[in-house]
Amino acid sequence: MTRFFVDAWDPAYGASFEAGGGGGPAAPSSAQVDAGVELPATDWRAVDARRDVAAPDVVLLVDGVRRIDASVWTAEDDGASFPGIAASYAAGVVRCDLERGAAELAGTRVGRGLFTASPSAQDVVAGAIRYPVHRVSGTGELSKLPAAVQGPLTALEVAVSDAVRTDGDLLVVDGPLRSRRNLPRTLGYIKTQHSQYLDGRLTAVVTGLAPGQRCPVFRLGTAWGGYSWYLRLPVAGGAPWAGIVRVECSAELTEAEAIELADLSLVTLPRFASTPYKDPRAPQNLIPIAGLERRLRGMLGDARLLHRVLTAAARGIRR
C-alpha cells in the first residue's frame, strides 16, 4: 500500500500546509431569473399564508454532518505526493407527526472515507474503523477536497430518507436540493444567503416581508435550477434579512405544483423555528434540525481518538 502521513495539526484549524487560497465576498449571482412564475415582476408583493392550506400530517427533516478527522499526505513510489483527507460523515432524519405533536429520530447512517487524487491509495484501516478510498478527479488540491465529501453525504441523506418516507409526507432537506431534485414533495431549505439572485426592486419585497409571509415564486436558470422563494420566519425585529430563508423545489414540477409547495412551506416551516435563547442561529436553524445535528455529531466518534488511531495506522504502514 502507498505510504501516507498524517498532518500534525488538528484539522479544525486547517492544515500546516495548504496550496492555493483566495476568496472574497459573494457577488450577485449571474443566474438567469424568471420572476414571473407566480406574479408578474411588476406586481410583486408579499404573499400571506392561505387559510385553505393545511400543514401535512407528517414532516420529515433530513440533515447531514461531516468532519475532517485528519489531513494526510501520500508518498508515491515515483517520489510524488498527494494530499488527502480522512473524513467522517453522518445523515439522519427526524419524523415530525404534526397531528400527534410528536417528533422522533427515524433513522441514521454513518460513513467514512479517504478522499484523495492519489492513484495508488488504498482503504485505511484505523483500529476497528475503515476509511474506504474515494478517488477524486483532477490534481486534488487540499483546499478542494472537503467539497468531495458532499457527494457521498448526499447519497447517505437520500438513502436514510427513502427508508422512512410514506405517502403524503413532506420532506425538508437542510440545504440546497442539488441531486435530490427528483424526490417527490421535497423542499430544499437554505438558511444562509450567499448569493443575490434578485434585482434591487424585487429584493425590497423580500426584505419587507413580515414574519409568516413569503415572496412570489421565481425560477432560477442555474445548473441546479428550479423554483425558489424567500420567506420570513418568526423573528422580533432585526436587520433586513433577519429570519429570511430561501426555499426551493424541483424544476420538473409545473408552476402550479411549485406554488402549491410554496404555500405549504409557509404554513409548515415557521412552526419549527428556533428561539435565540436556545440557538445562536435562531430562527433559521429549525429546532428538529438542531437536535439532529447534535445527535449526528456524537455518532461520528471522538475526533481526537480517531486522529490518534489514524496516526498510528500511518506509522504502522511505514514500518
What secondary-structure arrangement, pairings included, does this model have?
Elements: E1 3-6, E2 32-34, E3 47-48, E4 58-75, E5 83-97, E6 102-116, E7 124-126, E8 129-131, E9 133-135, H1 145-148, H2 150-162, E10 170-174, E11 186-190, H3 200-207, E12 213-214, E13 218-221, E14 226-232, E15 244-250, H4 255-268, H5 287-299, H6 303-318
Parallel strand pairs: 4-10, 6-9, 10-11
Antiparallel strand pairs: 1-4, 2-13, 3-12, 4-5, 5-6, 7-8, 11-15, 13-14, 14-15
The major beta sheet can be summarized as: 11 strands, mixed
- Element order, helices and strands? EEEEEEEEEHHEEHEEEEHHH
Outline: elongated
What is the share of helical residues?
10-25%
Q: Classify the beta-strand content into a percent band.
A: 25-35%
Low-confidence segments: 13-25
Give the total of beta strands.
15
- Radius of gyration over alpha carbons? 22 Å
Provide the structure class: alpha+beta
User: How far is it from the N-terminal to the C-terminal residue, by CA?
Assistant: 12 Å
Oligomeric state:
single chain
Q: Count the helices. How many? A: 6
> Please, what is the average pLDDT?
89
